[in-house]
Specification:
3 strands, 3-stranded antiparallel sheet, rod-shaped, alpha+beta, about 10% strand, 3 helices
């Protein structure tokens, strides 16, 4: 499925200018059909899956309980 720049920006939750910039930097693959750029949606799946994994990992770390008895010795 191909998306326009506007649809891609909405899908990625970024401004349209950012999508245009990424296309110019060749970080997003796009086709120019003569009037507008078309971006293949599936190229973002791997990246979005990786972002979700990192979010889950961070959430697990933040939700890990702090031990009640911390054995800290004051050696003054």
């Amino acid at each position: 499925m191909y998306l326009t720049i506007k649809e891609t920006a909405e899908y990625l939750l970024v401004p349209e200018a950012a999508v245009k910039s990424l296309i110019q930097q060749k970080k997003i693959r796009a086709l120019f059909d003569g009037s507008e750029y078309l971006i293949y949606k599936e190229q973002f799946n791997t990246h979005l899956k990786q972002v979700e994994k990192y979010k889950q990992l961070i959430e697990e770390i933040l939700n890990e309980p702090i031990p009640e008895s911390i054995d800290v010795k004051d050696e003054d």
